[in-house]
Design brief:
InterPro entries: ACX-like_C, ATPase_NBD, Hydant_A_N, Hydantoinase_A, Oxoprolinase-like
Largest sheet: 12 strands, mixed
GO molecular function, one term: 5-oxoprolinase (ATP-hydrolyzing) activity
Oligomer: single chain
CATH architecture of one domain: 3-Layer(aba) Sandwich
GO cellular component, one term: cytosol
Radius of gyration: 26 Å
Strand content: 25-35%
CATH topology of one domain: Dna Topoisomerase Vi A Subunit, Chain: A, domain 2
GO biological process, one term: glutathione metabolic process
Organism: Rhizorhabdus histidinilytica
Number of strands: 36
Shape: globular
Length: 721
């Protein structure tokens, strides 16, 4: 038998820290612990110790350790990053503060719109005399003495991190390299971030914002990964610490420390990567990914077995999404196209001054947590509502590692919601549950309908500790007929870390008319990007590692300023290949906007991703069972469905086998989550262990007659309206 190799994935969320430990022999161990917000490293190491102990594994057997964290996102949301300084080309120091001069998203037509405070005041911007044109030619050389004065001036004013974004440096980074060299020499304690190293793409404002975000979160992230590496080494884990990128690829910790913006959405990206893996495994090329944790809910889209990637993401606003955010900052690095809203299990419910029920975006987090946690939380949350409705077993939360106080949930909802609204506790809990669904539907709407995608053509795959509780009702809102609940959904993002490859992304801007494009020039550009990629991978990949290269082009209509990224197939770059790319662009444009354009096209950016395919955990072998689910039945409890309290069968998921079919209403429990199969639905276990929930056939449907549900419905309607 071959030597045992252990793979560990750890995902830190706002409420729980999730760990998946798998090996090359098919064993899998899942760990879920409360996040230690005051010191996330401590929470990670607690989970690691539990995982190694449960698996009977030695630290030296760990060959891969992959990590995702909400730390970068929280630093931006809470404005707790480093004090910034910015160095810009003389005459362009106001570029970042001018921005785009228009409101975004819901504030687009708000005449009273007030822009958010920028990441740094204008006084922390220094200008240096230099100039490079769009072709990369030096028009005015840079003066090192001028650079030194600018750097020291920012340091004197308290800068902890210095971002550098010079005009046209994407075409020629030489001047930025000089500034980086000088800054690191005269201010060795400062964190220095160059736009030409972070993401050398045209569009100065977006490039500046990306660089500033990277500098803003970089010092804290570098400190964090350094402390985590030290902690892992102390217990004997020598495997390289790898960090999940927002693009769904994995990078080394050293790169994460230098290019922190790449990790801005690492946790949500891992969840979508897990959904993409499920899509390929189950033969379902199109999926809507829905991940509901304790603090937020995330939605993404999988097309042809791969997540959609965007270069128009905005972070730090009320709703993070590609091309849509409430006052977020633009991020040009590759990000999985997802939307995130402040609705999770820990989202706090309240009655506002107008007497309306509200849920989120504020969260109780892990401490003090929902009222039922018994850790001091007094405000009712979505989790408390689900406990009252019978969807969560108080004695089996997190596999029984926590016992929930159901009466505390009832008291919190009674005091803060039911009594102010003049309704009973169950009606209030149903209102909280329904409003959470409405908030989360906004995220699904962004990645489907707002992208020209009909969600009815896709299945919904739900993950996160709370996702399977809400999934079917969310699917109903969009007419989605099939809901898929993967095994261990509560730690699915941590699993996604282990099936993601090590990869690097590169870009080169070269604007040209498609009709006049020179294939030889484009081939040279892409070859240069590939050489950079192979050099970057050489340090982490062995000679036996399989390397995968993916090329793409950003194409736009002439006289427009927004591009669509189009995959460029394999093979030599010739006229035929470029013509196919242009045809694909026109097809995508027509599908997205409903218009088939006839105008001429431009090629704008050339992109390349190079991946080193890593060893994955061994697949879990399953065989078809006898189709009788009764062996997994563990009891009955009262749960509420459509205004009725029903005696609901409860099943142990670990005892379900492929081919088993369960009629709703039913609850399927496992240590990290509970799945709700409502009345009128049926759940079937497939060969991969997924639960497939869809409407039951007419012959299968049965349930109580309509009776006294109407008064409850009227009360709920009054509470919501």
């Amino acid at each position: 038998m071959s030597a045992r190799r252990i793979f560990i994935g750890v995902d830190i969320g706002g409420t729980f820290t999730d760990l998946v430990l798998a090996d090359n022999r098919g064993a899998i161990h899942n760990i879920k612990t409360l996040t230690t917000a005051d010191d996330p490293v401590r929470g990670v190491m607690t989970a690691v110790a539990q995982g190694l102990d449960e698996a009977g594994a030695a630290p030296g057997e760990v060959t891969r350790f992959v990590h995702a964290t909400t730390l970068p996102t929280n630093l931006v949301l809470e404005r707790k990053g480093a004090k910034l300084g910015l160095i810009a080309t003389a005459g362009f120091g106001d570029l970042f503060h001018i921005g785009k001069q228009h409101a975004i998203g819901p504030d687009r037509f708000n005449l009273s719109y007030t822009p958010p405070a920028p990441l740094l005041p204008r006084s922390m911007v220094a200008e240096v005399a230099e100039r490079v044109n769009a072709a990369g030619a030096v028009l005015r050389p840079i003066d090192r003495a001028d650079v030194e004065r600018a750097v020291l001036g920012l340091i004197d004013r308290g800068a902890e991190a210095i971002a550098v974004c010079l005009l046209n440096s994407y075409a020629n980074p030489a001047h930025e390299a000089v500034i980086g060299e000088v800054a690191r020499a005269v201010a060795p304690g400062a964190y220095v971030c160059l736009s030409s190293e972070v993401w050398p793409e045209f569009q100065e404002y977006e490039r500046a914002a990306t660089t500033l975000i990277s500098a803003y979160i970089g010092p804290t992230l570098a400190n964090y990964v350094g402390r985590l590496e030290d902690a892992l080494r102390r217990i004997g884990i020598d495997a390289e610490l790898q960090i999940m990128q927002s693009s769904g690829a994995v990078m080394g910790a050293a790169m994460a420390a230098r290019k922190a913006a790449y990790a801005i959405e690492s946790g949500p990206a891992a969840g979508v990567m897990a959904a993409a893996h499920l899509a390929r495994e189950a033969g379902r090329p199109g999926l809507v990914s829905f991940d509901m944790g304790g603090t937020t809910a995330k939605a993404g889209l999988v097309v042809d077995g791969e997540p959609r990637i965007t270069h128009q993401f905005r972070a730090g606003g009320g709703t993070s999404a590609a091309g849509r955010a409430d006052a977020g900052e633009p991020i040009k690095v590759p990000v999985i196209d997802l939307a995130e809203v402040g609705a999770g299990g820990g989202s706090i419910a309240r009655v506002d001054t107008g007497g309306f029920l509200r849920v989120g975006p504020h969260s109780a987090s892990s401490y003090p947590g929902p009222a039922c946690y018994g850790l001091g939380g007094a405000q009712p949350t979505v989790t408390d509502a689900n406990v009252v409705l019978g969807y969560i077993n108080p004695g089996y939360f997190a596999g029984g590692s926590m016992t929930l106080d159901a009466e505390a949930s009832r008291r919190a909802i009674e005091e803060h919601v039911a009594r102010p609204l003049g309704i009973d506790v169950v009606a209030a809990a149903r209102g909280i549950h329904a409003l959470a669904n409405t908030a989360m539907a906004a995220a699904i709407r962004v990645v489907t309908l707002q992208r020209g995608i009909d969600p009815r053509d896709h299945a919904l795959v739900a993950s996160g500790g709370a996702g399977p509780i809400h999934a079917v009702k969310l699917a109903e809102l969009f007419g989605i007929e099939t809901v898929i609940i993967p095994p261990s959904p509560g730690v699915r993002s941590a699993w996604g870390l282990l099936i993601s490859d090590l990869a690097h992304d590169f870009v080169a801007t070269a604007i040209m008319r498609a009709a006049e494009a020179d294939p030889a020039r484009i081939a040279t550009i892409l070859a240069g990007l590939e050489e950079k990629g192979r050099q970057a991978l050489a340090r982490a990949a062995s000679a036996e590692t399989r390397i995968v290269v993916q090329r793409s082009i950003d194409i736009r209509l002439a006289h427009q300023h927004q591009e669509i990224t189009v995959p460029l197939g394999d093979g030599p770059v010739d006229a035929a290949l470029l013509e196919r790319a242009e045809a694909d662009f026109r097809a995508i444009y027509a599908r997205t906007f409903g218009i088939r354009p006839k105008e001429a096209c431009q090629f704008v950016n050339f992109r390349l991703r190079i991946s080193a395919v890593v060893e994955k955990p061994a697949p879990v072998g399953r065989a078809w069972g006898d189709g009788i689910a009764d062996r997994a039945r563990k009891g009955i409890r009262e749960a509420w469905f459509d205004g009725r309290a029903l005696a609901t069968p409860v099943y142990d998921r670990a005892r379900l086998e492929p081919g088993d079919r369960i009629m709703g209403p039913a609850i399927v429990e496992e240590p990290d989550s509970s799945t709700i199969c409502p009345d009128g639905y049926a759940a079937t276990v497939d060969l991969h262990g997924n639960l497939l929930i869809s409407p039951a056939s007419a012959d299968e449907r049965s349930g109580p007659e309509d009776g006294d549900a109407a008064p409850v419905e009227r009360t709920l309607h009054d509470a919501l309206c």
